[in-house]
Amino acid sequence: MTTSKASTTSIAAKYGTARRTVTVHVNERDVTREVSTRTTLADFLRDELGLVSVHLGCEHGECGSCTVLFDGHSVRSCLMLAVQTDGHTVETVESLAGNPAELHPIQEAFAEEQGLQCGFCTPAMVLRTKEIIETGRDRELTDAEVRHEISGILCRCTGYQNIVRAVQSAQRRCRGGGRDA
Amino acid sequence: MKPPPFTYCDPESVDEAVALKSEYGSDSLVLAGGQSLLPMLNMRLARPEVLIDINKIGDLQRIERWDDILEVGAGVRQYELEDHQLVGELVPLLPEATGYIGHIECRHRGTVGGSLAHAHSAAELPCTAVALDATVVVRGPSGIRTIEARDFFQGRMTTALEPEEVLVAVRYPVTPQAAGHGFVEVARRAGDFALAGAAAVVNLGEDGCFTSVSVGVSSISDTPVRASAVESALIGEAPTENNIARAAEEIVPSVTAADDLHATHDYRRHLASVVVRRAITAAVARAHERRNGT
Ligand code: FES
Ligand code: FES
């Protein structure tokens, strides 16, 4: 089927051009920006908002390093368009601690358990851990359960064992509200 | 690895989406959850002139029961099926199979209609739709059309959906209370495409023998396959280990997938009978549990 230029123009008139203005609630602040409708959420967060904790490993939904929380759910930000987040909420790891000198209990758990090496997968792992805790079961997950829950995020460094321990430690910290050894 | 330019439309009604689809036909693509389409755009395997984002259409996000049918809107997110009470009660195979789709991050966005329209032969929802005798509901310029799942999948990632139509819902017959279901996949890693998978629903009569068997098999051919030969080999038989194993072998001639990076043809022939046997065995165990009220 061929399409005349004229009809494309009429659609463009109704829906706006290849650019749109969006207002997104990112890390507890409303931000308004004009975006190209083909910009992915990941590129928007990194390039427009400077949230470079969003790591791009593959840009086609294989590695999970670009995971963010969209309306509270973990999603791959390379597989969404920025324009789709208009009126929605996005969280990245930058939102966790009050200031850059502090660590959130989940981040403390990753540091203490050495749940990271190069750190490329870590922001995704931390956010996924937050989601696991929030959608939470009230008991600590077994090793096998944690491995299943984080299976959408590839880590090329750690062999996962310390990440599993970090997730369990984070669960204890956030549940008890206190620290543990 | 960035999407090519397109005209982005985000209609809020099915009517509007159908109007766009009628106007742009194969120059347009529907964006649902985007878990397959976004990678295709990022890799420039797809270059639609117009992208029709259906995520704002509330009418596509309903889950409803009427009579003996569970109707699931095309825009329902896959993770919603996993612990939806009505879905679990009426068609328990669905939540079970859905848990095998990719990873949770994909199921948070991926939709029911998107999986069916993408029609990957390894995918769980197409295979389940074929096993459950589901009906696909599509809308085009001349109105609604319904297509049996087994006619909907026509070839490798090819469906009966016309370029000017939009997939709007899937209708699943409610599974009888006493039936048992099973879903089994073999994949190298959690969340990978299945090397082979099977979905089964069975009913056992008063005498304990099979009164009905439905089995769908994924990843062994261009489309999900209905294992008719396996089914007819079991009707009237007792659900013994031997009978199930022997009947499961009947799937082997349906394996047409050629050798690929992930498995050889011969290995898939072997796996096909294994997943069919396991899925039926799991379904029989559930049917027994239900009968014994556990
Ligand atoms: S960059 Fe998004 S999944 Fe790899
Ligand atoms: S710490 Fe390097 S990828 Fe996970």
TrEMBL record, chain A:
It comes from the Bacteria. Pathway: Alkaloid degradation; nicotine degradation. Its EC number is 1.17.5.2. GO terms for molecular function: 2 iron, 2 sulfur cluster binding; caffeine oxidase activity; metal ion binding. Keywords: 2Fe-2S, Iron, Iron-sulfur, Metal-binding, Oxidoreductase. The keyword Iron applies. Pfam families: Fer2, Fer2_2. InterPro entries: 2Fe-2S-bd, 2Fe-2S-bd_dom_sf, 2Fe-2S_ferredoxin-like_sf, 2Fe-2S_ferredoxin-type, 2Fe2S_fd_BS, Beta-grasp_dom_sf, Diverse_Oxidoreductases. It is an enzyme of class 1 (oxidoreductase). Residues 20-96 form the 2Fe-2S ferredoxin-type domain. PROSITE patterns: 2FE2S_FER_1 (PS00197), 2FE2S_FER_2 (PS51085). This is Caffeine dehydrogenase subunit gamma. The lineage of its organism: Bacteria, Bacillati, Actinomycetota, Actinomycetes, Kitasatosporales.
From TrEMBL, chain B:
One of its GO terms (molecular function) is FAD binding. Its EC number is 1.17.5.2. Residues 1-177 form the FAD-binding PCMH-type domain. Pfam families: CO_deh_flav_C, FAD_binding_5. PANTHER family: XANTHINE DEHYDROGENASE SUBUNIT C-RELATED. It comes from the Bacteria. It is an enzyme of class 1 (oxidoreductase). It comes from Streptomyces jeddahensis. The keyword Oxidoreductase applies. This is Caffeine dehydrogenase subunit beta. Coiled coil: none annotated. Keywords: FAD, Flavoprotein, Oxidoreductase. InterPro entries: CO_DH_flav_C, CO_DH_flav_C_dom_sf, Diverse_Substr_Oxidored, FAD-bd_PCMH, FAD-bd_PCMH-like_sf, FAD-bd_PCMH_sub1, FAD-bd_PCMH_sub2, Mopterin_DH_FAD-bd. The lineage of its organism: Bacteria, Bacillati, Actinomycetota, Actinomycetes, Kitasatosporales.
